[in-house]
């Protein structure tokens, strides 16, 4: 009996602890009204009577993204802004194209875990554990058909190590995972972070920071 009560207490504790993800829906559908000027956690729902099949539809993920940029990758997002029907469902998808030797530079998704499947090519992928875990790098080379998961919030990357283009599909447990590209946030912030602060953080001369801050940081 005491063991049962203890189990119940533990279960109720853990079930209250797993709320760090998108909240659960309170109705069948809540198609985002992308034009609403009201700010809520997520998007305002439009009248369910006005919902159409197209709210739950996206086309064109068969088409490659344009990887002609300085990192050689393109991410085609199917987040709530592209598919209004995703609102409150806690899920989304991307297609990622990589030019030969292109990459998605180290970045993090503040609101989602990512699970990635390689459709074409060979990717070197990895994520880094937090300071508490000694910044351990967990990395692997993936081939066509391989699947890898990047835990929520951790810094990760994917790099095409092949001389042919690579393609991946990745899913997220958020309608709006968010993308924070580390280099862009640190060196490309607007306005720039003081070079004094970054020189100390990176243990380099301020000139190196000024050089980095002067680069053209484009969000992939
Ligand atoms: C791809 O992007 C580059 C750089 O922005 C641009 O010059 C080029 O026209 C684009 N190609 C296509 C097919 O859209
Ligand atoms: C932390 O990382 C250092 C350097 O790689 C390594 O020597 C050490 O064994 C690691 N410690 C733990 C607890 O993982």
Automatic annotation (TrEMBL):
Pfam families: Cupin_1 (PF00190). It is found in: Secreted, Extracellular space, Apoplast. Oxalate binds at residues 109, 114. Keywords: Apoplast, Disulfide bond, Manganese, Metal-binding, Secreted, Signal. Mn(2+) binds at residues 107, 109, 114, 156. One of its GO terms (molecular function) is manganese ion binding. InterPro entries: Cupin_1, Germin, Germin_Mn-BS, RmlC-like_jellyroll, RmlC_Cupin_sf. This is Germin-like protein. It comes from Cinnamomum micranthum f. kanehirae.
């Amino acid at each position: 009996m005491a063991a049962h009560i203890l189990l119940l207490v533990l279960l109720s504790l853990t079930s209250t602890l797993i709320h760090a993800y998108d909240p659960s829906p309170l109705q069948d559908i809540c198609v985002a009204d992308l034009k609403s000027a009201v700010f809520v956690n997520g998007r305002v729902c439009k009248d369910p009577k006005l919902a159409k099949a197209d709210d739950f539809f996206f086309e064109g993920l068969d088409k490659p993204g344009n990887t002609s940029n300085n990192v050689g990758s393109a991410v085609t997002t199917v987040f709530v802004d592209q598919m209004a029907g995703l609102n409150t469902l806690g899920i989304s998808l991307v297609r990622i194209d990589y030019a030969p030797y292109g990459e998605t530079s180290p970045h993090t998704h503040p609101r989602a875990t990512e699970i990635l499947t390689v459709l074409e090519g060979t990717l070197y992928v990895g994520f880094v554990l937090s300071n508490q875990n000694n910044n351990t790098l967990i990395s692997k080379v993936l081939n066509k058909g391989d699947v890898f998961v990047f835990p929520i919030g951790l810094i990760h990357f994917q790099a095409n190590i092949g001389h042919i283009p690579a393609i991946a599909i990745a899913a997220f447990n958020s309608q709006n995972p968010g993308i924070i590209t580390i280099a862009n946030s640190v060196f490309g912030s607007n306005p720039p972070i003081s070079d004094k602060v970054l020189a100390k953080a990176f243990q380099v001369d301020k000139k190196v920071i000024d050089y980095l801050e002067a680069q053209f940081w484009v969000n992939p």
